[in-house]
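Subgroup meeting minutes
Present: P.N., E.W., G.H.
Scribe: E.W.

1. P.N. recapped why we're keeping a running log of single-chain structure predictions: easier to compare across weeks, and new members can see raw inputs and outputs side by side.
2. G.H. added today's entry (328 aa).
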Amino acid sequence: YLSATDLEVSAKYSLDAETEGNASFCINAKNLFDILKELPNTDIHMELEDGENLLKINCNDIHYSLLIYESEEYPNLHFGTENKFQINSDDLSNLISKTSYAISNDETRLHFNGIFLQEVETKLRAVATDGHRLSLIETDLSTQNNEALINGVIIPRKGVYEIKKIAESYPNTTLEVSVDDSYMYIDAGTEYHLGIRLIAREYPKYQSVIPGKTTFTLTADKEAIFNAVKRIKIMSNEKSNGVKVLIKENQLTVLANHPSLGDARETIPVDYEGKEMEIGFNAKYLMDSFSIIEADDIILELNNELSPVIVRSNQLQNYIGIIMPLRI
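Output recorded in log:
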């Protein structure tokens, strides 16, 4: 059994081995990992002598002796067993990949530094926002009425990336997840256990940002609009990444002006019948929202030049993105 923790994320992994007797010790993880990855792909022999603080590692004609430490002071890791629900690892990975781009990097606003998970009407909803954009996706939930999930929990950024690793390491596998007020636990079979300390903050009322209804709808080819924004972004201000989007009947023009470099514009055909509008956006936010949608078409729903814009696709019914306009 291998265990590791930084008191925020904890992991435990079991593997088959031929053992004689019981022992417990601590060892420098990086040093051990660096050694193991350089050894040939064959069995290794590990040996502990009574009264010695050395772990001897032998592999063919390769020999190491590594300093070890007493394990009595190592934290007692606990992995949850109550309030469990099951989720497919591919579905969990999809929740994270569709939302994690919108996690805030502002360490002064802890409640934005993670993904918010909540049970909403028999579905598991994942939300991330940094105050300028929002990403929301839902998937079916196997077990309902988990009290912690009904109120919602915030998984910190580091925990999010560890969950993504475990989901990608066990593709199309049923994972068992349990949640309480302070921790989330994930089990991949009987061999891998992950524990994550949750962010003890109340998540913002994100629903208020999502427009209840929209007046205008624009449909564009995903590749065309993504590439247009990507090309015009080159001439945007490096700090704001600001571009203007001019919408007219059945056409969309992306414009940018850089005071010391010049300007650029590109026009693409779209499906739009509404009033003419010019809206400023952070080009990177647009590209992030477009890139995670695996579909042919992008749909933008909007009311006016200043209101939040919904990004979605008919081929991804359980997802919506929100982008706030930028004053340019």
